[in-house]
Each structure stands twice: as structure tokens, then as C-alpha cells.
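Hey, does this match?
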Amino acid sequence: MKTFITLFLTILTTIGFSQDQYQQKMGEAMQNYAQVKSVQDYSTAASQFELIANAANTEWLPLYYHAQCYIMMSFSDREASEVEKDAYLDVAEKSIDKMITIAPNESEVYALKALYYTAKLVIDPMTRGQKYGILTNTAIQESLARDADNPRAKQLALSNKVGTAEFFGKDISVFKVEAEQLFADWDNYEIKGPFYPTWGKDQVEGLVARCSKASENETSTATNPSATSKQSLTIEIKKLKSETGNIMLEVLDENEKMVQQTMGAIKNGTSTIVINDLEPGNYAVKFYHDANSNNKMDANKYGKPTESYGFSNNARGFMSAPKFKKMLFEFSDSMTIKLKAK
């Protein structure tokens, strides 16, 4: 079977596609892509787009969807380790680089590049936030410079603003009007051609919901202070080697979506961080000790961390971070968890 696929790919690359064949194959691939439900489905769709990209090597859209499949695999594969997710994104990066060569002035290419950088960041926000946050914003600006109305670039920019505000514990309800306007204007954007990207509207709808909920919470708290949830998660981190710098910590829900990022001071080898108003559910905690305050977890030349770190349930992995499910714990009422820095 592998030999047949290789032979088929060689033939396609040699003879290429006519425009009619290209339209037909892309149409079939897009129909399949619209039905994906699993990591395996994404992998199958990616293979289909790869075949088309090799046969129609002056077209950027097959490369776009090939890269997007691997980006989505990195987001959706909950069983994958950090190394495995990075491997998905390495494949995506190659297609993105080829796209830029073929279509250097296409706004959508840079919007996808921004999504790629976002995927790199969310694998480990605490250690990658500074580097990939800058790269994401740069790609967004490159996209908007080529098309100031590109709604996907606008969605990514707004997501970054909301995420940054949440990280610093600021009120995200201030972005409610911007999110609602972007959602209302979404369908007014004219798609440039067949098979052009259309994704992003669902994500904007999610931003509207988050900002609206934050607005409702602000109003409820202002009119009825007793209505504020009293449930809180207290995290005690012990065995820290020094009191310099801060603890950088993030809380994630069971879908690996970040709920909150924060930092904590250290006293007597211990840092105590309280997460307020946490809804019942299953969560995971990650942290590292940013001893030199450079906003990243330092490592030696072999990639081994040189600063202390840890996970909820005091989970440990072998030569990498532990599987996410090992970090999950149930939160139903105010509680304290005690973690040890490694």
C-alpha cells in the first residue's frame, strides 16, 4: 500500500493537474475536511491535501489546508506529549514556508502562520509565552498589512488581547463590544475565491460569550456582592530552592484550555497562590520557578530544565512532561492542594 501511494504521488508530481482536475480534487478534499472528527481524520485529510499540493505545486491552498490539519492535530490530540505536538507543528511549518514562497502577498497565509505560532505557545504557555506571543502578533500584523479587513487576523488579534487580559487578571468585558462587532460584520467579508479559508466565526462567537459572561459577573458583583462565588483553589508549592523571582502558574480545564495564568511570591521556600471563583470541574495545574525573572523556564543545552517546576497530583513524566490526564484533579468546593517543586 505504501509503495502504491509513493508511486501515485510520483506520477501526480510528474504530470501535474489541469485546472479542472485541481478544482475537482480540491472540492473532494474540502468535503472530506468538513467532516473531520478525530486526529486520524485530520491525518487522512492532510494526506489528501499533500497529494494535491505535490501535483499542483504552484497553488498555495492545498499547502494551507495541509498545514492547518497538522495545527489542528496539535490542538486536538489530548494524548500527545509536548514532543509529539511539536512534531505535528514541524510538519505544518514546512507547508507554511512553502506557501510564503508561492504567495508572499496573501493575507491568509500569515493569519495561518499566526495560528501556528499560537499552537506552539499553548503547548507550554509559561515557558513559550514571551517568544511565541511576539511571533504571533508579528504574523497577525503581517496579515492585516496585506488585508486590513481579514476577519481571521482580527479574530486572532482579539483572542490575544482577551488572553493577555485574563493572564493579568483584568476585566475582559471591555472587549465585548469589539467581539460583538466582529461577529456582526463577519459575513460581510467577501471571500476572494473558491476554497479560500472561512474559519473563525465560531471562535468569535466564543469570545462574545466569554466577554458577555465577564460583563454579567461584573454587574452581578456590583449589585449583589454576596452573589460572588466563594469557591477557591489554594495551591501550596513547597521545596523551592530560593526566594528570588516568582512562581509562574497556570490552571487548565479538562480540555487543556487555559483558565487562568498568574504568578506568586516565595517565602520560606514556599509559595501560596489562591485562585478565586473557580467553577466546579476537572482541572490541572502547571508551574515553574522563574528564579531570574526572565519570563521563561531556563534549560541547559540538552533541553533539561534548570529551574524548578511541577504539576498537579505531583505528576511526573519520563524525559518529558507527564501525560495531561495524570495532572487532572476534581474540584467541587474550596480546597487546598500541596505540590512539590522538582
Remarks:
- Strands lie at 232-238, 246-253, 258-264, 271-276, 281-290, 309-311, 329-331, 335-340.
- The radius of gyration is 22 Å.
